[in-house]
Amino acid sequence: MQDTHVPALARLDSALLAALQSAAADAQASGVNMHVTSGWRSAAYQQRLFDEAVVKYGSMNEASKWVHSPSLSKHVSGQAVDIGPTDADDWLIQHGNDYGLCQTYANEMWHFELATTPGGECPPQLSNPSDERAEG
Q1: Could you read off the pLDDT of 91-114 as tens digits, one per residue?
Q2: Would 96 disulfide with which of 1, 47, 92, 126, CB 3.0-4.6 Å?
């Protein structure tokens, strides 16, 4: 997470990036390697992901359970990251709120957002990204 010249990291919200860097350092001290597998995304790339999901799942409604359109995606605004590998996801699920990082969707253990203050309580998870659209 030190390659901050890469757009996927450089265009993240600065508070999110700082929280991730702190969490990654502490995870590393615990023997867990943490990587951003997807950070900031361009609107065009997000649209491509959404279009591919529509083909894969057969409808926009089903696709939206896994991928947001560019207008709704927090990746496009630099406010969300996907983390890997799985042991890093597990570590962040257990310790993320210490940094303000929360798993926001129950069906995406890899997706995290800065959703609370450090040490605060994470909001209840939504079952999937389409729930957010219904609420907001």
Answers
A1: 999 999 999 999 999 999 999 999
A2: 92
